[in-house]
Amino acid sequence: MPKKEKMAKTPLSDEEQLLLFQQKLLAEEEMAKKKERLLSQFLKDKLAKEEHNSALNLNKINTQWRTVLREVKTRELHKDIEILSQTFERVVDCKDNVIKNLEEKHFLRLHLENIVEDLWRKFQDVLKNYTDATEDRKAAFETLQVKDEKSSKEIEVQMKKIQKLQDAITISKGKIMIHSRESEDENRYIRNDKELVLVQLRKLKAQRTQARAASQKNLVRLTLESNATLKALRKIVDKGEKILKLAEICRKFETEEEKVLPFYSSVLTPKEQEGIQENNLEELTEELTKVMVDYIGMENFWKRYNKVKLEQLSLQHRRAQLLDINGKLREMLKQYLDGISVSDEVLSQLNPLFIVNYQSNLPQPLSIRIAHP
């Protein structure tokens, strides 16, 4: 025992460990195969039992199902047999009735055949008697037939004539229709022309009324304009009279020079005046020249007016100069008065009494030139 324990405790080499591992694997594989065989055998046995039980159950179900089907089928067959028996009885009854009817018809047919034979014999006798009696009538019928053929030919000829007459009638009707259409067209054109003439007449009447209204309006407007023109002319006349009165009043205030030479002469030389006239003629248009011709008589008036306007402008300019001079003189007077009085305010401002190097601190007065008109 101690030797075995010592051997067991001794460590194994790699090859021995590999062999032990392979043995374990083989043992495990054997166990697994054994388990698989047992399991497969168990499953096969169980499958065989299940198949046996299923076969038994299937046989039982089939037997029960067959019994049910047999019962259902027997019921259906009983019903079919009853229906067939009823139909067979009906068919037999129908055939019996048909047989009876056929026998009755056969007897009736025999009876009718006998009657027909008797009637045929009587008909032959009557026909023979009729042919013997109607030979003359037959000959007359043949002659009538010949006459009928002739008359039919004549009727055909007459029908052709009638057809020709009908064709002529249709042609004449067509011509009549054409003439009637043409006449209707002409009448329609005439009616249209009449309507157009009536429309034009209405338009002319409307234009005449409009022209009358327009002429009436023009007459009223002309009357109003003439009245307005007369009023404007009266105003112009009044204005002219007023201007003449003012001219008479202003005549009193004219100087001797203005009385002697009322219209000033131009300061330009004749050459300068000719150059200005040429430039004005180049700039003027025909319409403006026509208008200027109507106002040639106003030239002296405009000269006087321009002279007065120039004098007015000169006086206004002179007045502005005098106002400017007056303001400057007032300013100088104020400065002078401020220079005479002594105060802090005066000393703080420009003062003519402060003289340094013979010069005052006041600005030098401007030289004043008085322009004479």
Automatic annotation (TrEMBL):
Keywords: Cell projection, Cilium, Coiled coil, Cytoplasm, Cytoskeleton, Flagellum. The keyword Glycoprotein does not apply. It is found in: Cytoplasm, Cytoskeleton, Flagellum axoneme; Cytoplasm, Cytoskeleton, Flagellum basal body. Its main location: cytoplasm. One of its GO terms (cellular component) is axonemal dynein complex. Residues 25-104 form the Dynein regulatory complex protein 1/2 N-terminal domain. One of its GO terms (biological process) is axonemal dynein complex assembly. Component of the nexin-dynein regulatory complex (N-DRC). Interacts with DRC1. Component of the nexin-dynein regulatory complex (N-DRC), a key regulator of ciliary/flagellar motility which maintains the alignment and integrity of the distal axoneme and regulates microtubule sliding in motile axonemes. Plays a critical role in the assembly of N-DRC and also stabilizes the assembly of multiple inner dynein arms and radial spokes. Coassembles with DRC1 to form a central scaffold needed for assembly of the N-DRC and its attachment to the outer doublet microtubules. Belongs to the DRC2 family. This is Dynein regulatory complex subunit 2. The lineage of its organism: Eukaryota, Metazoa, Chordata, Craniata, Vertebrata.
